[in-house]
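Work Package 3 (structural annotation) set out to generate three-dimensional models for the target panel prioritized at the project kickoff. During this period the team completed the workflow that converts sequence records into C-alpha cells, so that structures can be stored uniformly alongside our sequence database. As a representative example, we reproduce one entry of 282 residues exactly as it appears in the project archive.
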Amino acid sequence: MLNPSPSPRIGLALGGGGARGLAHVHVLEALDEMGLPVAAITGTSIGAIIGAGYAAGLSGREVRETVSASFAKSADVWAKIWQLRPKSFSDLFGGGLVQFDAEKTLELFLPPAVPDDFAALRIPYAVVAADFYACQEVEISSGPLRKAIAASIALPIVFRPVELDGRVLIDGGVVNPLPFDKLPVDVDLVIAVDVVGMPVRPPNRPVPNATESIFGASQILMQTVIAEKLKSRAPDVLIRPPVDLFRVLDFLKATAILKSTAVVKDDVKRQVEAALEARTTA
C-alpha cells in the first residue's frame, strides 16, 4: 500500500461558460477555507480569467470582491463598454458583425494583480485557446499572460480573434471547455469545474431567437466535447454549479449568479473531503 503524501498536490481546472463561470469563485473560496493549496491550474475562457487571478496570488475572497466591484454598477460597466466601441467605419462594417477587442477588454476589467507574463505567477498555470486555421487546441503556459487570456476568451460572436506567435486564436471552449486533461500528471487530486450549463427554454416562446440559437449551439458543442472526454477519463472531483438559468453574457447579473450558486461551496467541500478520504484508505 502506498503512503499518501500529507499535503496532496491539487490540480484545478476551471471551464468556460461566460458569465456562468463567475460561480468558479465559490470553488476557490471552498479550497481556501479548507486550507488546501492548489499546485497547478488550467483555465478556458472565463476560467482563464478567474484562474489567472488565483494563480497570481489573489484569494478566493479577493477574486469575489473583484468580480463584485467590476459589475456592481451597470452604468460603470456600460461606460467601459463604450470605450471599447469601434472607432472607424472599417471596424464597424468591415466584417459583418461588430466584435470587441479582447485585449482592450481585459485592460479595463482585469485587476492589476494579474501580471503581464506567466513567469510572474505564483502557481503554475496554463490556458487553452483554439488555433483557427490549424483547427486544433493550443495550450499556453509561458510568455505574455494577458494576451493568452484574451485569446482564450475570444468568443467569435463577441471578440475578434487574437494573433499570438503567428497563430490566429479564438475561444478555447471550442476545443476544450473543461481542460482538466491539461493539468500536470503529477498532481494527486484533479478538481474540474464545469460551468457550460444547458439551454433553458424561455416561457411562452416556441423556438429560440437568433441570439439564443447561436449561444445555445455553442453550449451544445461544449457539452458534447465534455461528454466525450469523460468517457475516457474523469476528474477526481467534478463540480457542476446550477447555472442553467443564466446566459453567457449575463455579467450584469453577477450578484444573482453568485447568490444562486452559493450551494457549490459546500458541495466542493463534501466532494473534496470524500476524495481525500478515499485516497488515504486506498
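The chain has ten helices and eight strands.
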